[in-house]
Amino acid sequence: MTTTTATAQVDQQAAPGKTPGAARGPRRTGRIRRIALPYLLLLPALLLELLVHLVPMAIGILMSFKELTQFFIRDWTTAPWSGFDNYQLSVDFDAPVGEALLHSFLVTCGFTLLSVGLCWLLGTATAIFLQDTFRGRALLRTLFLIPYALPVYTAVITWAFMFQHDNGLVNHVLHDQLGLTDKPSFWLIGDNSFIALLTVSVWKGWPFAFLIVMAGLQNIPRELYEAAALDGSGMWQQIRHITLPSLRPVNQVLVLVLFLWTFNDFNTPFALFGKAAPEAADLISIHIYQSSFVTWNFGTGSAMSVLLLLFLLVVTGVYLLLTSRRRKTADV
């Protein structure tokens, strides 16, 4: 009987369908399929990203090392190699080109700080005060999202008509109706162009902050506010000690996105002022466009674009590093 049992065990081990290696085969194949499936689903998006962004970026970096002017537009590959001359010209702040780029960079920094700060402030305040239930809240939420839903060029061109000197709505209200100014102001030229640009940027940008903050507020338990109210905390104390700390992860992403969108904004100044923006509103995006497509110096314009890309990468990396450290410190 012992011999029969041993023979059966040997037959089971020798059976081809019962071997451990054969059992692991289908399991290993299924594991490979599970691992490869996400990459296959992402492959179309990766190819589109490669064609739309990465390939033009690589060509732009190559163009920044060439003396590419209007004489080589037909075949830009024949343009002579200039090395780092375009970069040296761009960062030479004693020369006209570098001085103009530095001025544009400083204007863009000031514009970005004001626009991002005001967008965040208006969006956060509006989202917080619309958390309470009252009649007409849904209608107000819908109305506040209209600037974000409108196409950029439609909204900016409408503002350009409103900022007209002779028959614009802004001068009609400020000068004719309210009498706040001595005479109609020029909003699309001169120093007032910065105020006009900032107004349009905040008007079309703050609904995005409002939408993101409003979504983040849904994750804060109402029990925290009820407990704070029982302890005698007022509205401002609840906002300071409950709302803002709970929104910190949302605000970290929101501020970074608003910064990148605003610093790189080209559509707003181009639709508002055209190809030649006033000196007070000369953002770096429109300045690079003028250097490339107005003066036909694509080599210098490409070098400026690469410098802008490096600056944004450094700022983004430092910001993410600082926010991650603060998050770890708060968790500890």
Automatic annotation (TrEMBL):
Name the segments for region: Disordered: 1-27
User: Which InterPro entries does UniProt cross-reference here?
Assistant: ABC_transporter_permease, MetI-like, MetI-like_sf
The annotated topology with respect to the bilayer is: Multi-pass membrane protein
Q: Where is the composition biased (Low complexity)?
A: 1-24
A Pfam family (short name) is: BPD_transp_1
What PROSITE patterns does the annotation carry?
Answer: ABC_TM1
Which keywords does this Swiss-Prot/TrEMBL entry list? Cell membrane, Membrane, Transmembrane, Transmembrane helix, Transport
Residues annotated as transmembrane: 37-65, 105-130, 142-162, 194-217, 245-263, 302-322
Tell me which residues make up the ABC transmembrane type-1 domain: 105-319
Coiled-coil ranges from the UniProt annotation: none
Record localization: Cell membrane
What's the family? Belongs to the binding-protein-dependent transport system permease family.
Q: What is this protein called?
A: Sugar ABC transporter permease
